[in-house]
Specification:
Distance between the termini: 44 Å
CATH class: Mainly Alpha
Number of strands: 0
CATH architecture: Up-down Bundle
CATH superfamily: 23S rRNA-intervening sequence
Helix content: 55-70%
Oligomer: single chain
Structural class: mainly alpha
Strand content: under 5%
Length: about 140
């Protein structure tokens, strides 16, 4: 099993800092949404955005790498959810287009960071299991 990452605190993780930036951006963006969206898209976006750093924090605080990976997976899912919600906001012309684009770009960067962190936590055995075969050993079809 891989060793716990060198980070002693979630505050040592750059992905956590970027996800806090994203959460702040989402709260600012959604303040401009119509009041009737408060319990709709506004609430959904805020919950998804806040879930990203919250799950990174909770996972980093766990004692096992497997648990950390689990919570990073949840954070990754919340990030994808937020990307969908940003697209809906864009199509409905809610908020400033420039702010949506900026939040979306940051979300994509965070997605890459989460994926890289997840990969770094895999054991060599798990990495080998995920490799694609170099030759096709399946039987030929008639």
């Amino acid at each position: 099993m891989p060793a716990k990452p060198a980070a002693q605190s979630f505050r040592d993780l750059q992905v956590w800092h970027r996800s806090i930036d994203l959460t702040t951006a989402i709260y600012r963006l959604s303040q401009t949404f119509p009041r009737e969206e408060l319990y709709g898209l506004t609430g959904q976006m805020r919950r998804a955005a806040l879930s990203i750093p919250s799950n990174i924090t909770e996972g980093q605080g766990r004692l096992a790498v497997k648990e950390f990976r689990h919570f990073l997976g949840i954070a990754r899912g919340s990030n994808f959810e937020l990307q969908t919600q940003l697209e809906v906001a864009r199509r409905l012309k809610l908020g400033e287009s420039k702010e949506i684009d900026s939040a979306d770009a940051l979300s994509h960067k965070i997605g890459k960071m989460l994926y890289a962190l997840l990969l770094s936590l895999k054991s060599p055995h798990e990495l080998a299991d995920n490799r694609q075969p170099t030759t096709d050993n399946s039987p030929e079809l008639p």
